[in-house]
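Record pair follows.
FIRST:
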Amino acid sequence: MKGLQLPWRLKMVALRERAERTRIRVIRAAHTAFVQRGYTGTRMTDVATAAGVAVQTVYFIFHTKPELLAACYDHAVLGDDDPKPPPPQPWYAALLAANSAEQSMSHFVAGNTAICERVAVLDDTVRAAIHEPEATEVHQRSQRLRRQGYQVLVHHWLRTFGLRPGLTEATAVDLLLMLSGPANYRELVIEDGWSIDAYRTWLHGELLALTAPPPT
């Protein structure tokens, strides 16, 4: 009986792996389409053609265009190499374990910049679709998740290093959202031609200024 179960299990594993490869292929095709054509101009049939699958497959996996857009956002944030949300990532653990605000900010900037590299252009495309409530909701969902995650980080920095005098925890969260958001990355790196190192140096300095000066 066990001998008969093994080929069946291997077949199920192979099917799951094939389904995941198809899902990623559709997401990548959709990401390109959203960036090139905008949310309104992207059709599910075009995504299916670019991904090399039937349009029914796209609808079976994602059901609606807003769901597909949300999946593109999530994939851009998580990445391909190690698709996990920030908290389980090594850079996140390193920033929590850092002994100084400078070190903690360095780890945050490294992880956040990698995310911005993947999501900045897609984020700009969605922000431009202000007359599309479905796309706006996807963007708002992303912002809510970022705010929730940043509230945890700012609270950690407050307890561990302190915030600069007069800066409240709520305001620090607002500033972190604005400074580290994909819009600034897009404007400085993509539009103004800053190098990644220059952007990281700028962001590190701005974020370090949110924390209390180290004791002398």
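SECOND:
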Amino acid sequence: MANLAALAAARQTKEDSLGRLRMYASSATHFSITKAVALLGIGRENMQNVAVDEHFKMRMDDLVAKITADTEAGYVPFCVVANAGTVDTGAVDPLREIREVANRFELWMHVDGSYGAFAILAQSARKLFAGMEQADSIALDPHNAQSVDAVERSGPRSLERGDRKQSCVCAPSRVDGASQRRLRDGGARRAFDLLFPSCTGAAQKSIA
């Protein structure tokens, strides 16, 4: 549901182009993205699978080539989905480079961090996620990171970030009372600060 909600928001940026919309995701992307595209009426045929490199990360040359070709063919590119830890290999796409491409072509950048994004809490892995804070939306799923403190939230949350808005979209997770107390004691805030460093204080207080 997190990815579905994020792509629904992305679609609104170019809603009048339904039927000609094109979205981009690597061939390593979770199947929930494909299902979301179908459920939203965008059509699976309008999801372009971008090639990955030897490390299973999205290739920027293929992404740019596909966007350019679609634009010339009369399609309307609207969104690129980046992975912050794929389910099969744990690969993290080059998020900063994807943001640059998204800016160049005026695309919504969604990050599927359902499986691996909470690894940002580990100092040793943090640099892998550089650029994730620039995404327009991020999907999180706390139950995939049960060994770390996480933030529990259901539904989209739009947060002011300069002249743009960022959505924190998380799948709901079942946690017991002890885990909830641990979240309130600071784990959630640490994760939130890392993922959304420029959010307003009022927005941050909403997760306490």
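COMMENT: The mean pLDDT is 75.
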